[in-house]
Specification:
single chain; about 220 residues; alpha/beta; TIM Barrel; eight-stranded parallel beta barrel; about 15% strand; TMP_synthase; ThiamineP_synth_sf; thiamine biosynthesis; thiamine-phosphate diphosphorylase activity
Length: about 220
C-alpha cells in the first residue's frame, strides 16, 4: 500500500473544548476548505470508544479531500480505524515500538523541543517528522515544556534532517516569523479551532505560509 503522502504546511490539531460550540466535523471541514493540509485528532479526555468514533467520522470527511488524519498517542486505535498516522510525545513510549505496532505504512510524528531530543530522534523510516515547540506558551496544553521561541526554533532546525512542523502558541501575529525559519510546516490549535470563522482563519494562515515560501524562493 505504501505510506500516505503528507504535507506539513498547515497542520490543524483539534481540541475537544474549543471545537465543541461548532462541532468537531464542522470545524475540521471548514479548516480544510481554508487550506489545512493535515489534521491531528487530539483528545486526552474521551474514552477509547468515543475517540475511535470521532476518528472514523473524521476519516470520512478527510479521505475524499486527500487530507491525512493523524491520531494523537492512541496508536492501537489509529491502526484499527485506518488512520494515516500517529503522533507521540516524548513520554508516550519508544518510537521504535510504536513503529513496530503500526507497521511501515503509517506516518509517525514525534514531539521534540531540545537538542537532546533532536539528537535522539530516530530516522531510518522510524519517525517521519518532528513536532517542534512549544514556540510560545499555550493554554491548550498546560503541561507543555518551556517555550523555545522563534529563535530557539531556528537554532534547532539544523540539528536533525527530519521534516519539522512548529507548534505552540502560533497564530496570525507570529506565523510569518515562524514560517521564515524554514520549518516545513506550522501547526495550530486555537488559531483555527477558536476562530469565529475557521475557514477564513485557515485561509489567512495558509496565505502567510505561501507568501513566506515565495519570498524565500
Amino acid at each position: 500500500m505504501g505510506k500516505t503522502p503528507f504535507d506539513l504546511s498547515l497542520y490543524l490539531v483539534t481540541d475537544p473544548a474549543l471545537v465543541e460550540p461548532r462541532g468537531l466535523l464542522a470545524t475540521v471541514e471548514a479548516a480544510v476548505r481554508g487550506g489545512v493540509t493535515l489534521v491531528q485528532l487530539r483528545d486526552k479526555t474521551s474514552d477509547d470508544r468515543d475517540f475511535a468514533a470521532a476518528a472514523e467520522a473524521l476519516l470520512a470527511v478527510l479521505k475524499p479531500r486527500g487530507v491525512p488524519l493523524i491520531v494523537n498517542d492512541r496508536a492501537a486505535i489509529a491502526k484499527a480505524v485506518g488512520a494515516d498516522g500517529v503522533h507521540i510525545g516524548q513520554d508516550d513510549g519508544d518510537p521504535r515500538r510504536v513503529r513496530d505496532l503500526i507497521g511501515p505504512d503509517m506516518i509517525l510524528g514525534l514531539s521534540a523541543g531540545t537538542p537532546a531530543e533532536f539528537a535522539a530522534a530516530p530516522g531510518d523510516g522510524i519517525v517521519d517528522y518532528l513536532g517542534v515547540g512549544p514556540i510560545r506558551a499555550t493554554g491548550t496544553k498546560p503541561d507543555h515544556d518551556p517555550p523555545i521561541g522563534v529563535e530557539g526554533l531556528a537554532r534547532l532546525l539544523p540539528l536533525c534532517p527530519l521534516p519539522k512542523v512548529a507548534i505552540g502558541g502560533i497564530g496570525p501575529a507570529n506565523a510569518e516569523a515562524v514560517a521564515a525559519t524554514g520549518v516545513e510546516g506550522v501547526a495550530v490549535v486555537s488559531a483555527i479551532c477558536s476562530a469565529p470563522d475557521p475557514e477564513a482563519a485557515a485561509r489567512s494562515l495558509a496565505m502567510i505560509i505561501r507568501n513566506v515560501r515565495a519570498a524565500r524562493r
